Structures are given as structure tokens and as C-alpha cells.
Amino acid sequence: MSHGAKARLRQELLARRRSRTGIAAAGSALAAHAAAEPLLARARRIAVYLSMPTEPPTGPMIEAWLSAGAEVLAPVVTADRLAWVELAPDQPTTLSPLGFAEPDGPHVDLGECDVIVVPALAADHAGHRLGRGAGYYDRALAGVSAPTVAVVFTDELLPQIPSEPHDVPVDAVLTPSGLFRVLRS
Fold first, then answer.
1. Is residue 89 classed as helix, strand or coil in its secondary structure?
2. Among candidates 121, 99, 89, 139, which has minimal Cα distance to 7?
3. How many domains, the chain?
4. The domain spanning residue 91 has which CATH number?
């Protein structure tokens, strides 16, 4: 599928997110499913993004992981890459040039995580994920062996989305309706 198809779908999904209601309830549901899923509940070192206001909220999951004593890493932008910083409860953040909250601290190796939770505008049953188009997560995930989980709203888990050879697939998709393992052919 073409780059143009990805751009059109990205615009449609962003518009839908801007008009979405009930976002806080989605965060509670995501946290409940994460707590019930061994892949996420047993992880001791988790990389996860700090959600923006229109994204499925990751805050309740992060609070639960920190309360359980897990080490939680959050991304920060460095030039054209993401680096990872350990997150502490109530740690102050600053707004990144891309519009998401970033903690401050020394960079930590993403490769030593038990699981990596990534944002997406949509994901499909084959593990393709549609991001915002800058490729930060594809570059960050290249060569990383930890299981990856995309987080989307339930209606953003689609049968198929456009993908390109450089897109790094995910292993599972977490929605407010549950966790869906990717079907690989």
C-alpha cells in the first residue's frame, strides 16, 4: 500500500481522536487489562510513552507499574531519535518539541526492557502499526528483541492498515476491550 494511503488514514484517525469522548474511562480499562495480562503484569522493566490528551491514557498503567515496583522508562526526543529515561512517581516533565511530556534524567538502554509499550493511531491483526509518520518508534524498535505492544482505542484495531518495509511490527495490541495477540503468517 502506498505512502499516500497511510497519510489519508492518519488524517482520518487524528480527526476522529480530536472529537472522541470518554478518554479517561479508556485509561482505566487499559490498566485493568494490563494488570490481567502476564506479559504486562509480570514485567519488571517497562518502556512506555506518556500519552498526549487525545491518545488512549497510559497514566493509570504507569501508576500501577510504579506502585508494583517496576522500573518504568519513558521516551525523550534527541535529534531524530528517541532515548529513554527512568520515570519516578510524580516526576516533573517538560513538553517535547513533538508535543508530549518528557521526564529528565540519564538515558537508559531500551534493549534491557521486558516489554515495550508504543503509541499508535491504529494497528492491525498482522502487527502493523500506524504512527504519526516521523519514524521515531520504528528507529527505536529496530533490533530490539523485547515484546512490543501498541496501544489504541478499540475501534482503531483494524483488519489491515497500510505498511512499508521499514515499519517495525508489534507483537500485541492493547485496547480498552482487551489485549489482542498478533497473527503472523
1. coil
2. 121
3. 1
4. 3.40.50.10420
For 118, the domain range is: 3-181
Are 75 and 102 in contact by the 8 Å Cβ rule? The answer is yes
Note the pLDDT of residue 184: 63
C-alpha grid cell, residue 10: 492518519
pTM of the model: 0.92
Q: In terms of Cα–Cα distance, which of 146, 114, 141, 143 is closest to 129? A: 141
Which DSSP helix (H) or strand (E) runs through 115?
Answer: strand 115-119
Distance, in Å, from the CA atom of 75 to the CA atom of 68, rounded to the nearest integer, reads 21
pLDDT in tens, 127-138: 999 988 778 898
Cell numbers for 103? 521526564
The total number of residues shown for the chain amounts to: 185
